[in-house]
Each structure stands twice: as C-alpha cells, then as structure tokens.
Amino acid sequence: MSGDHGPHPHQPDLEDAPASESELLARAVEELLIEQSVITASDMRRAIESGDARSPASGARLVARCWVDPAFERRVLASVNDAARELGLDLGPVEVRAVKDTERVHNVIVCTLCSCYPVGLLGASPDWYKSRAYRSRVVREPRAVLEEFGTHLPQDVELRVHDSSADLRYLVIPLRPAGTEGMSEEALATLVTRDCMIGTALPAPPAGD
Amino acid sequence: MTPHRFAPGERVRVRAAEPPGHVRTPHYTRGHLGVIESRAGSFANPEELAYGRSGEPSVPLYRVRFEQKQLWPDYAGAPHDTIVVDIYEHWLEPAEAKSRRTTRPGTDKIKARQRRSKR
Asked: Are A80 and A98 in contact (CB under 8 A)?
C-alpha cells in the first residue's frame, strides 16, 4: 500500500492558492460577527444561498411577459423595479432600467469601470463580463466582440453600447424572434438566455423548425 | 434633489479633467462631445462616497450619447453606431464652451502636482 499515485498532474484544491488579503479580511470579519452574536452561521449560509439562487430565469420571465403583454412592457420601460414586483421579484434598492431592441437598434451592456450588473434579474455575472478584454473591447469594437459570440448584426442596424459605470443597472429586452407567435409565455421564456439580456446574443427561434 | 442643468437633446462636452481619486467618468469620454439622451435621477456623489463621506448634496446623473466615430477615429463598425454612458453633471459642460483641456479652477494645479509627483 502506497500513497504514491504516480506522476500524473492533479487539479489543485481551492485552498492551494494563497488567500488574498480581502479574503482574509472577509473571513476575519465574518468570524468576529458570528463570535459577537451579531449574526449566526445560519444567517450567513442563508444569505449566500439566496444570493446564489438568483438566476437569469428571472430576467427571462420578465422579458417573456413583455413579449406577450405590451402594457406590462410599458411598465417595465417606466420602472423595471416596480414591474418586477408584479412577478414577485424584489430587485432591491438599486434602480434597473430596460433598453428595448428594435428592428433598427440593438443594445449591448457593459460596465467598463467595474462590473455593474442586474444581479436580481440575471444572477451572478459571468467571468467574461468582468474581464478586462470584454470591458475594454466592447466599447471600442463592439461588432467584432459580438461576432466572437456568434452574433452577427447587419450594418444598417445601429449598435448601441450602454456603459453602466454609475448608479443604474441595465437589462436588454431583445426582439421576439419570428415564428414564435403561438408559443406560451413559459415556452418563450426558455428562448431568453442570459447573453440575450446582456445583448451579446439574440434569442434563437424555437428548435426543430 | 438637485435640479438638472441640462435637458434631453442638448449637446454637452465631458470635462477633460484628470482629478485624483475615485472617479466614475470613463476616460474614453473625457473631452468628447455628446448629446443628453435623458436625465437619470440624482445620486449621492460617488467621488465622495468612496472616501466614507455622505455624498451630499446629491449630483444629477445623465445618460449621454456619443457617436462611436467621434470617440474612436479608427472605429470600424457602422457609422451610425453609438454608445450611451451614465455621467454625473459636474463632469459636463455646454458644448459651446471652448475650453479643451481644463474647465474647473484648480485642475491645472492638481495636474501640475501630479506631474511633479511622478518625477
């Protein structure tokens, strides 16, 4: 019996990388808060769990409702936070705005200075959204970036980038694809992916057609 | 709430300043001409909040639209492509104001200080 598994490389464990200063600080503050009975370990766990439970499915529900209900869409364009409450979604105090694609304008979202993102509707942002490459390139050569996502935009459509580097968060309401006329709201929501609501992708028509 | 000085459709220029500290005005917009797309409420000043101060009085925020061709002379997309950036009012001046590099008293001094400290 030997602990020697041979020379093959193994995947490092999470703890193998050195902890950053901010990780150590967060851990120390958490331990203190629990030790001083300000919060409990369960509070902490629940907060993390509910944060992780947020997902683009919420945004997709909102977009699908906009597609089938023009009055709802008008309320979304007036205030996303208020309209989301109708769907039982609490987006918190940060104001979210919707930008609506048309036949002539396509919208795409970025936060060049950090990574502002409508987490209440889309969940945690993907790593690429936070990357320097996306943040710096999508404002300078947005069409090339979209092509890399497999998204081709005709030259006659205006590409409008939104840099949300301040106090507002943005969500794209993409165009409803052709050939979806008879679909239910629930089925439509499955066509609305995360990237469609960032603007790097367009909803695909239902498969099998 | 601080009233907004600019109205939708008005042409503005982003100040070409480089103050020290936490600033939320993307560098690529500074010194450039844009059009007020809409007013976007008023918010605690992030340049103050970043240092633990109250951020009061709040500062009006705008959505400012730029032509990509103006921002990047070698822009390779379509000529009508645009970018809309959220910019606080104290970073904007009327488009007619001709001052190119500095617009606020003291900015020169700050920049000179920065240049000196770099040496």
From this structure: yes
